[in-house]
Amino acid sequence: MADLLVYCEKVETARELLCQGRQFAAALGLGVSAAALGPGAGSAAGELAAAGADRVFVSEDAVFEGWPADAVAAGLAQIAAEAGATVVLVGSTRRGKETAPRLAQKLGAGCVTDVNSLALEGDTLVAGRYAYGGATVAREKLATGVQVFAVMPKTFSSDGATAGAGTVVTPALEVATGVKLVERRAKEGAVVNLDAAPRIVGVGRGFAKREDLSLADKLAQALEAVVGCTKSLADFEWLGEDRIIGLSGAKTAPDLYLAVGVSGQIQHTVGVSAAKLIAAVNKDKEAPIFRLADYGIVGDLYEVVPAIMERLAKA
Amino acid sequence: MSVDVIVCVKTNPDLQMIRIKDRQPVLEAIPYKVGDLEKNALEAAMQLRDAAGGGTITALTVAEDDRKVKETIKEALAMGADEAAIVSDPALVGADPAAVAQALAAAVKKIGTYDLLLFGEGSTDNYTGQVGARVAELLGLPQIGYARKISVTTDGVQCERSMDDMIETLAAPLPAVVTVVSEINEPRIPSLMNIMKAGKKPLQEWTPADLGLDAAALAPQRQIVSNLAEEQDRKHILFEGTAAEQADAFVNALLNEGVLGR
Prior knowledge:
The structure holds two protein chains of two kinds.
Chain A: E1 3-7, H1 11-28, E2 31-37, H2 45-50, E3 55-59, H3 69-83, E4 85-91, H4 94-107, E5 110-115, E6 117-121, E7 124-131, E8 136-142, E9 147-151, E10 167-169, E11 180-186, E12 199-203, H5 213-223, E13 226-229, H6 231-235, E14 256-260, H7 266-269, E15 277-282, H8 289-292, E16 295-298, H9 301-314
Chain B: E1 5-8, E2 11-13, E3 19-21, E4 24-26, E5 32-34, H1 36-52, E6 57-63, H2 66-79, E7 83-88, H3 97-111, E8 116-120, H4 131-139, E9 143-153, E10 156-163, E11 166-172, E12 176-180, H5 192-198, E13 203-206, H6 215-218, E14 222-228, E15 237-239, H7 243-257
Parallel strand pairs in B: 1-6, 1-8, 6-7, 7-13, 8-12, 9-12
Antiparallel strand pairs in B: 2-5, 3-4, 9-10, 10-11
């Protein structure tokens, strides 16, 4: 029997892909496999089973330490062959995105990366992703017998999963890597996780100087939100690259995205278009962000933001 | 030592010039240019060459359309590539990342000697990030993605990259495939003198057939069902009045929507 195979080095993303993958598999008459690679990876087998995996292929081989793309692609290709996988869903994290095409090349498979929607049309999977710098959404399908989709984290929910049998398989893999890990160190300072934030205050070039961002920090505190930014503020080194939202940063789906002094260039807004609610404060009535906003205030952020905080204090 | 680098450059449409009409992107008469991240890759190659005290930088590009290729490669040469090679043929119409990777890998084999293959992490227009990884697999090379620092020694290449909450330093023997991110450098702007010289630099021109590639090798695996500007269903409510009045109505709206977590 053929299978749908799911892999992501992040267990939460693998669970999302399994939860949805199980529905695709049922419609396509496929079984569901998951792969867990790297030292200690086997401890996730239970979670992957609960999210829908009938079989969990586990390899704790030290070659997978740090998930080098060549080794992970080789390992997954061998697992895909053993599982008889015709559809492979990989998390489109940075690591997944460098691995999925190499895996596809090994399998003679077509591949779509940065997928932010995936649905069956008849018995064909059609993937959506941004094109032309975010100006359009391309819907793509693959003509190959084996198909690899690298799907963005949080595209699917892991709620309401149907558990699979969860049989653990330990495949004999022949894998080597040409890449050596010299050093790995944690980033200095706290690193924000925009993906997980329920509310985000986005800041852009409407802020006149770096010190003024304290205003955004206070607003974020009042909203229990996290501060994200456009690429240009990170280029100025006003904020770290971990806070960039958009094509070159995080693609987020918060309950609320509040854009303050953000003009709304497409390269930025692709990272928030999945937000449940978009609100904006900008002094330029013609700013593109208002075309995307549910609620907007045209005004000087240096007056409007303190007024919002004052009102929030009474809420 | 010297270091020979092949920089793979995509022919990117100038995104600033794309208009949307009836949700369709209008691409006629759009200028083509070196993608943003490939400019970073070219700059990195020049810095590596200068640090090594010698070597050759070859800019390599693939496209179905002669105009796209020439506009792009001229810019790469003006930036400072020493030589260029292009693969151009109508057979590449509709080429997907797999087909482009086949053509690039075949061209790299034809060029023969190189220490490093550099790519942007993704192209400015479609950002699939597939081609570098596919070429690495086709040539059986190690790959390091997202480099923000690169150094080359006789032992190989060493790169620093930022992954989630970690900074990693990775090393690989040469030859290797490395993709770069924008933080790596500030690409130089071609001087008038270099723009003048670009036309005189060596340029190799191949068709896929010259590289031993047949139609089957280039057959697209991917089909674009549609490619349209997104329609967003948003409320578009603007609040008026004084800052205090605006803030009041605004916060009320957010409270009613239940997005404030209280």
